[in-house]
Input
Amino acid sequence: MARAPFVIAGTEVKPGTRATVEIPVAKLYTHTPLHLPVEIIHGRRDGPVLMVCAAIHGDEINGVEIIRRVLRNSALRHLRGTLVAVPIVNIFGFIQRTRYLPDRRDLNRCFPGSESGSLGGRIAYLLRTQVMEHVTHIIDLHTGAINRFNLPQIRAELKNADTERMAEAFGAPIILNASLRDGSLRAYADSLDIPVITFEGGEALRFDDVVISSGVKGVVRVMRALDMIPVKKGPKAPRKRSETAAMSSWVRADIDGIMRPVARLGQRVNKGQKLAMLADPFGEVETAVVSPFSGIVICVNNLPLVNEGEAIYHVARFDELGEAEKAMDYFRSSYESELGEEVVPVHPWDEMQR
Output
């Protein structure tokens, strides 16, 4: 029996074909229409319906490139199920190179949305009714905020066994067992019992080859784990790629001043170890910023000018810190071998502790 077409926003996509669907969103002041672009690849055989989305925060652009590269993967010729790719969710923020919508709302706090609510509520409602309610699994792609560089990591609530399976399959070095936030896409998907993971990596408004490559590989690995594309032939990885953090905490500036970083992204730090130095412009007042516990640095604020209370380092804590170190070593060696030594000296992780 032939598989039925996949129907989204009134458009039918036949088995074994792909199509781009432009879902009307709103209009600019100039009366120029805006659309939510959705790429559908509908396999000939039954299987999961995976949504991969990015730029729900309009300045988080690494995910847009990750989706572009995934859509070019030759393994999709053998796709089971359906891939639903939404590269730019927050089209308003993307155009303006900003995290937020024009009314300063965070779209990732607007779910499930409302047909007659705020702009964010309406876009959330549109994505929910036209796309999310047709899928079985979700990967949501994010980066750090402006001037904050996130180590590639997965955030998920691991009480759902299918979600945990996706998180581990993705292969990022770190998994954070993160609680759900009201109004987020992840929280709403969870309320529908849709397994969902969030990938974080890199910095807003910046492409990063390591993060993008990690994201592409991760999405493909999840698709293999879901039996959507064939398993890659050849020897398997020699060890587990990811370690799950027991908790994480932001370390904040105690004073206003200029920050001189000491610890690097991905580095193991011990409790009480110096992460950075803060000083006034003349060096008369200087204080050390120390780690509250032993762990791995998973995000660094790259802006040296900080105010008291500003988040500057994000440290993840592990039950087995040695295993987390091994995951970092494995991740570092894999990207060095792929991208070549010539990229290492100019990469933000060039001084990562080995």
Q: What stands out?
A: Residues 329 and 354 are 7 Å apart (CA to CA). Confidence is low (pLDDT under 50) at residues 341-347. The first strand starts at residue 6 and ends at 8.
